[in-house]
Write a structure and sequence with these properties.
Elements: H1 5-9, E1 24-25, E2 29-30, H2 37-63, H3 71-78, H4 82-94, E3 98-105, E4 111-117
Antiparallel strand pairs: 1-2, 3-4
């Protein structure tokens, strides 16, 4: 039996994703999203891994000491997807764990913000 085109191309959310509300991490805050069903589903899928990713990102930045690192360097050094790194970096900046400190050319040849740790995890 061949399904009608509409049934074959219909987009559905992953079965584990609750698109009504994103999961929180440790009950503290929700993963950022842009209020579309796909974005909320993606936020729900990453929620179980976000704390671990954030810890890996912070550890990598701390390991670079005063030299710091760019988001692209974190991606290369940790193999975490760049989009996930950007979200984890935003959270770490918001919490006061890291800051942007100047710019330098990254591997793509584009000037990128250099991230440095500014203290312990808050």
């Amino acid at each position: 039996m061949v399904l009608p085109l509409s049934a074959r191309t219909a987009r559905t959310s992953p079965p584990s994703a609750n698109i009504d509300e994103p999961r929180s991490i440790g009950g503290l805050f929700a993963i950022p999203h842009n209020n579309t069903p796909g974005s909320i589903a993606a936020a729900n899928l990453i929620a179980p891994h976000a704390d671990t990713q954030e810890a890996r990102v912070l550890a990598f930045i701390e390991s670079r000491r005063e030299l710091g690192c760019t988001r692209e360097e974190i991606h290369i050094g940790t193999s975490i997807r760049l989009a996930s790194i950007c979200a984890r970096v935003a959270s770490l900046i918001e919490r006061g764990c890291i800051k942007e400190s100047g710019t330098r050319a990254n591997e793509s040849g584009v000037n990128a913000a250099v991230l440095v740790a500014i203290g312990g995890v808050k």
